[in-house]
Fold this protein.
Amino acid sequence: MGTLISRHWSTLSSGLLCSAPLFILLGLGFFGPLALVVLYSVQPRGSFSPFGTPTLENYIDIIEQTFYLSFGWSLLLAIISTAILLLICYPLALTIKRHSGTVANILTLLVIAPLFVAENIRLQGWVLFFDKSGFLDGGLNYLFGFGPGSLVNNVPAIVFGMVYVYLPFMLFPILLGLSNVPADVREAALDLGASRWRIFRDIEIPLAMPGILIGSLLCFVISLGAFSEAKFLGKGVIVTIAQDIESAFTFGQNWPRGSALAVLLIILAGTAVFLAMRRIDLNKMLGSR
Amino acid sequence: MELRGVDKYFGDLAAVNQINLAFQEGEFFTLVGPSGSGKTTLLRMLAGMDKPTRGDILLRGERINDRPANWRPTCMVFQSLALFPHMTVGGNVEYPLKCRGTPPAERKERASRCLELSHLPISYYDRPVTTCSGGERQRVALARALAFDPEILFFDEPLSAIDYRLRKTLEKEIKDIQRETGKTFVYITHSLEEAMVMSDRIGVMRDGGLAQIGTPHEIYSSPVNRFVSEFMGEVNSIAVTPGQDGKLWCASLGASITPPSPLDASFKQGTLMIRPENMRLVDADEAADTNVFSGELFNEYVLGSRIQYQIRINDDTFLVERLRESGSPESGEQIRFGWSAEDSMLFPE
Amino acid sequence: MTDSVLFRRLARSYLAFILVLMYVPMLIVALASTSKSRFFVFPVRRYDMKWYENTFSSLQIHDGFLTSLTVAFCVALISVVLALFGALAYARHDWRGKSFFQQILLVPVFFPQSVLGLALQLWFNSFGVVMSWQATVFAQLVWIAPIVTLIMAIQAFGYDASVEEAAGDLGASRWQIFRDITIPLLGPGIFSGFMFAVLLSWGNFPLAYFTSGADVTIPEWLYGKMIGGYTPMVPAVGFLSVLAGALALGIGFSLQALLARRKNR
């Protein structure tokens, strides 16, 4: 009788107990700050206190001034990079999966490892590669006497940077998704008469979809907040919304405006997350029986 | 379908070694053998999932080694069933027809007929396959395999993970379907009972080769060697050498034994094997024939409708099986048992 | 499935190409750090290791390195503890708020870091908390702890709960079960979670930038120099930072392999 009660008690509150510290962390570190941001977004321009009279002037400002440009750019860049990443990472994931388990793990690790190097450093490497007299230009000049000059300072360079930095974020979920496609189901489809294309369309994509969705979502949302690529590879040719938010907070000394911009960005990202997440069962994806 | 001189090597390991085998149209052929004997490898080559390292696979005389699995008139039922988890029952069964461009109305009609054949209610058509029980999924797998009317069906231990009663039911159903449709079934199982009940012919595999091919009766009563004999069921083995008067001599029993048939002149030593059900208990007062011995009954096992007695003589144990009847002997008693010479099998070494 | 040789070769070269591409920038950075001239020109005219000398003697770099290390270590330690319980809540126990918890936990991960950093700056400000490396630890925890929890949850999903029940049946107390069964079985997850956290924190920029105030981590130092005051010390520091990360990974894996071997003996 005693064990019965304690087990019942254990099912009830063990989960709650275990998750409590994380809940607290998220409350204090995430939802709290975000709520504060929302609060600030409705404060009068330039005020530094969250307790003034609520007003919508910041949002009106945003619409009136040219902030929609940076929003537009961020959105466009995010969509383009996510699309490119999908096209790049899917075949990559398939190729990795062809190898045996241990080899596949090592390969995955190799592709993901650069993630741990600060994005500054990695982007700097590409700047040195593409810039005037850099590796590409200088090398070609040395070998052939002419070079393409500076390949940075433009939008494609920014997209390249984003694709490069966020590649592991797309690869890893797609790999997870593909592991939900059992080899014997593939073989059975082949045996029943399916062509390669059919197997891809009817079997692989539907079963790997959760991974594909998560990867795309992750890349989209993170690239909305892209910051360094535009600064280093684009050298300021366009301004992303994250940069606008930052300058509102620092140079602009306009916290409410920065907050309003942030809120809009959060709404954008949040909608994407919400739409995609309803279709995914995380339990199954991460491997519960 | 025929295999000629087929080898399959994985690196240095010969999984399948010089197999020559022909299937008749419309037969139920079962492959049995211990784990690792190459049964699944063989099946996969027949189905087109793997290619033989050497040798030919022929269909009606035509070489089909290079034809991929989706181009062969065959279908395989996997051990794991490999049902499409994201589709409904109907979706699964319809799939091969969809791949062949069959119009939707016809697909549904043919798929429904297959469901009927597999004893699944039509109401299951739109059910997600993940909600089906183990037995139901077996039937879905069967229906799916039949949907596009393949000539040959391959089964890789499909019933190994089900409980006894369901298994018996499905065994009968599979056999009925085979008889009704007249298709060729090539079946792998590690259950001997299943093989004996369902097959027209059985192939016993060992270490990548075929030890014997024959009807269930042939394999059981006239096994070609010790391995097949032991594999097909429990059997009593006695080591024997040539004795006097054309009889056999058994050192451990210290007695003469009448062989099943006249001894070959070249016979030096071998094993005599008798199935437990061919042994019988001999009453104490019955006349002592040859091949009758006396030992201590030390165990008995009830096997459903039959009883198996374990009798010990010195260090050897003999198994005697018979139908349950009243008047069971007591444990510890001295018991007489024996067999008729023609029921035994002699395997020279 | 049987595939043509051409297809296989194409696939493999694609993989190789991408792999090389991932590491090119770091190689360039290494190269740039050895150039004598102030600005990077390829081919390098004169090689010199003086930038490395500068790096090693710079006090700023020393401080930055120490800060990065301390932050990474604290973040990893706390993350692992939080994640251990979190993973159990995520995967093992069945409780009412479970799916809510699972979804909520992911939100900080799927979130633009720069916005989070700024929000935290606001937040700390209103509480009068001074920007420092401790603030950065907190900030990184918000992002990294959920990731570590996910990693450990993957491990926890493969966990057979009946083992715990068996232990209880044999007479172990809840604490003993936790200590002798749960933690060892989750061991690999704990280990990889820790490594992941260290590396993610070590290389993190956006969160550190907005919350560390006077304390400067290595990525922040790099950023500052890259905007204004570029010298080849930047790639030198960058390359050393990469080496440090790789070293940590290497140590981590060898430790893991060592422990595994010791267990099997």
